[in-house]
Design a protein that fits this description.
Radius of gyration: 18 Å
Strand content: 5-15%
Strand order of the largest sheet: 2-3-1-4-5
CATH topology: Rossmann fold
CATH architecture: 3-Layer(aba) Sandwich
Distance between the termini: 39 Å
CATH class: Alpha Beta
Shape: globular
Oligomer: single chain
CATH superfamily: P-loop containing nucleotide triphosphate hydrolases
Number of strands: 5
Order of helices and strands: EHEHHHEHHEHHHEHHH
Largest sheet: 5 strands, parallel
Structural class: alpha/beta
Length: 242
């Protein structure tokens, strides 16, 4: 069985991609659990919550398996994903790329599992990503104060996508998309995902909303901003020029 993980920095259309990919009869989506207060979470942050929010981790496991977790993220992931009854299981978790510790736990599970591990990343023009209300979005993804300012958030962005580009050899297969390409050519890009996964073509397409391109140009937080060499290099490898 293929386990497909959608990866990307916050505000990079990971949710839109998840909704489109799961709109296929061969795909089974593993969602998150209810947050304190009853709000639903659509991301399965299994490899991040285990030490950062143990109560949420237990709620997530109970949501899928009905009983208490073992406390070992590899064992617990196997128990959850064993419930997949379709050819492709789907998980979305932005924290896998944004958190070094979560990434290491994920790799440990990938080394132990009998499932095929497929990685589908998605990127957006980095300055637009970093301009997308990081206080209310990226800051909620992980406790790293660097995400609050574009000058330092670019470090987190670069580290995240470098994992996808340079530290994915453990996966059965990996590929990435650019938001702008999917918005401009949705059918071509999404059918490419189906071909890559080896499943039938999509017959249902979720409308993609236009992205606010160049929004960073009117963001006062970017006054005096200078892209760092590492950011420029990762952006270039993703097909962007800073």
């Amino acid at each position: 069985m293929k386990m497909l993980f959608i990866l990307g920095y916050r505000r990079s259309a990971t949710t839109a991609l998840q909704q489109q990919v799961q709109a296929h009869p061969s795909v089974q989506y593993f969602d998150g659990s209810l947050l304190p207060g009853g709000r639903a979470r659509n991301e399965c942050h299994l490899f991040d919550l285990i030490d950062r929010a143990p109560a949420e981790y237990e709620a997530l496991f109970r949501h899928h398996c009905g009983g208490p977790p073992s406390g070992d993220s590899t064992v617990d992931a196997e128990a959850i994903f064993a419930r997949c009854t379709r050819p492709v299981g789907l998980v979305k978790s932005t924290r896998l790329l944004m958190s070094a510790r979560a990434w290491q736990r994920f790799k440990a599970w990938a080394a132990a599992t009998t499932h095929e591990v497929w990685l589908l990343g998605i990127a957006r023009f980095p300055l637009d990503t970093l301009s997308s209300d990081n206080k209310n979005f990226a800051a909620l993804a992980l406790p790293d104060d660097r995400v609050l300012r574009p000058e330092t958030a670019q470090e987190v962005w670069s580290e995240a996508y470098q994992r996808l580009l340079d530290d994915a050899a453990f996966a059965t297969a990996a590929k990435w998309l650019r938001v702008e390409d999917v918005v401009d050519r949705p059918h071509e890009q999404i059918q490419g995902v189906a071909d890559w996964l080896g499943i039938a073509p999509y017959t249902r397409f979720i409308p993609w909303q236009p992205v606010n391109r160049g929004r960073w140009r009117t963001d006062p937080a970017f006054a005096g901003f200078t892209p760092r060499p590492a950011s420029r290099e990762i952006a270039r490898r993703l097909g962007y020029e800073l």
